[in-house]
Design goal:
This protein has 186 residues and is an alpha+beta fold. The chain is built from eight helices and four strands. Helix content is 65%, strand content 13%. α4 packs antiparallel against α5. The longest helix has 23 residues.
Length: 186
């Protein structure tokens, strides 16, 4: 990991830990989860928001005001609004995507869940997703939440990432392996 990315992750983790612990002490983990989901959707849906929080040209006052307006529009909890205001004042809003990811991990761990990133060649049906979640649950002993994406270049099969484990059963990977084996022969 590069040094700037490592520093950003460290900053995000400290804010996430504080926010998580305060929410847990206040019995407001449901509200925190709702806030995290709303922020994730806002970041995913607005390239302008991502550009604004990462821009060194936008003043900290303007960033704080803009993020406050976004937080109010999203109906975020007072604790989250105060945290975002503090991050704006300290010029730390650029770590917001990492903060959201860290909070999601902490909330999942609190519920006894793990998240598996699944990439498939075509969209999984509800039955397929349910079956895959059951198989993974039997393997890891925890509830598994699937984060699914589609990549048509896989041709067929799946790529499953669960923690540090990656299982690639895609046709694309099998073809690449066959191609490498053929190069070694000839």
């Amino acid at each position: 990991m590069s040094e700037p990315a490592s520093i950003s992750l460290g900053i995000a983790q400290r804010y996430a830990l504080a926010l998580f612990e305060l929410s847990k002490d206040a019995g407001a983990l449901k509200a925190l989860e709702s806030d995290v989901d709303a922020l994730a959707e806002a970041l995913k849906g607005s390239a302008d928001l991502v550009a604004m929080i990462g821009s060194p040209v936008v003043s900290r006052e303007d960033q704080t005001r803009a993020m406050g307006a976004v937080a109010r529009a999203l109906g975020l909890s007072t604790l989250m609004q105060n945290t975002l205001a503090l991050m704006g004042q300290k010029r730390r809003l650029f770590v917001l995507p990492q903060l959201v990811a860290d909070l999601r991990d902490r909330l999942a761990a609190e519920r006894g869940e793990v998240t598996a990133d699944v990439t498939s060649a075509s969209r999984l049906s509800a039955a397929q997703a349910r079956k895959l979640a059951e198989v993974l649950k039997a393997k890891v002993g925890k509830d598994v939440k699937l984060n699914t994406t589609v990549d048509e270049s896989l041709i067929g099969g799946l790529i499953v990432k669960l923690g540090s484990t990656m299982i690639d059963t895609s046709v694309k990977a099998k073809l690449a392996s066959l191609q490498n084996a053929m190069k070694e022969v000839g």
